[in-house]
Each structure stands twice: as structure tokens, then as C-alpha cells.
Amino acid sequence: MKRIRILAAVALAALTTGFAATPAAASTADACQTRAPLTVDGDTAYAVTTRPGQAVCYPFEGRAGQNLAVGLYIPLDDGTWRGYASRATVLDPTGAVVAVFSAESPEVRPTFRVPVPELTRDGTYTLVLAPIQATSTLRVAAAVSSRQVLGGTRIDAPGRQVTYDRVGQDKDLRLPGTPDQFVALRVTGFAMTTREAGASPGLWIEVRRAQSDAVAYRGVVFGPGDFTVGPLRETGDFTVRTWPLDGSLGHATLGVVTSRP
Question: Half-sphere exposure of residue 5, counting CA atoms within 13 Å on the CB side?
């Protein structure tokens, strides 16, 4: 078995999430050039600015209880993509900051995905995209996607083909389990591609516990194989959550099989 690689430190370095409005965020929103609204699970919007320092704002409608992710990338003239390397902020209907990404620090790599914590209000949210430097302009593609729950799977049952056609979108499978089961994730039919130069297409995988939203296991896969998850340790419905890495698109078949320590 190939051991799932743990990348929690990378995730924490790449993304910070805030839950209170800040004067900086509010002033950024006030200075924004408002664009046509985005629709959750709708079309991708493309923004190109020519004035240095100009931010753009995309309103979108959200509902309490929704789980969303913002997909972002920089489309280049040769057809390739790069990760977004500026600032992204999501404001709730009151103007409070609910999610933030900033590539200002050299330790933070560009991103293709900004997760948004579960929405707590109905109303109009705003995605604010702003350059890091006052002398810089923006070139970015942006879309807002909801988490898709694809149904259930069972240990040692045939795998489920999962299609990834939106940058950064979460896909969930439910998995009933018991404490005595020791399992591995089985990936077959891996057919993923990415337009990011030099990147390998892949999937981020999280197994979330049955009795809480805690992450029990986390890792990435770049091709087919069996990837050891370990003992489930509790009874209930686990969640196998995946999303594409580095702008990867395509499909893969995911299953869970009995394994051995």
C-alpha cells in the first residue's frame, strides 16, 4: 500500500480564514469595480483590469447552510493556467469577512481554490479580488461552486466514477463504517489533466469522521492505486471528500476496500 501523504501544513500555510469584518476589507469592497453577479454553479467570470491597484467585486446569492468553494486561476494567452496569486476575500451580506486568501507572503503558493465556511445567512455575498501591489493589475477567472453530495459507497463495493468539471469543487461520498474496519482508498480509471505548466494532475482527499466534522485522514493522489487510510475507529457515516488539485479536470473512480495494517 502507498501511504497517503499528509499535507495539512501546506493547506494551513496557503489559506487563512477570517470571521470578522476588518477596516481593510471594507475599504477594499468600497473601492471595487462591481461586475455582473456570479451564480453558484454557474458560468466562470473573467476579469482583466488595466488600472493598477484596481479591485473587482462579484456579488452572488447565498443561502444559510450552503457549503461553497471559489475556484480561481489566471488564464494565459497560450492556453495554460496559473494559480491565482493575489488577494481574494468573501464578504457576507453584512460586510463581514467570511473567507480570505492572500498570496502576499512568499511562503504562500498561488491557489486554485478558496473554501468558504458554511454560510450562516441568506442574502447577497461579495467576492472581492484585488492585486497584491498597488502597481499591479488583475487577470483572473473566477467561479463559485457548491459542494456536491454524490450519494454513498460501501467498503468492498464497486467504485463510483466521479467527474471533476469545475475548478476546486468539492465532491462528497458517504461511507458507513465500524471501529474494527481497516481500509484503503482505491483509485482506478484515473483520467485527470491540468493546464498548469509543470504540474501533475491530482486529487486532494479527506476522510471526515462519522461523529464530528474532524478530518481523520488527509492526502493527495496523482494516479491509480490503493492508498492506506487506516482504522475507522468509530461507527457511523464517514465522508470521503475530494477536490481537484492545481486546476485538474477529468474523472476518476473512487472506492474503499478492506486493507491490512
Answer: 10
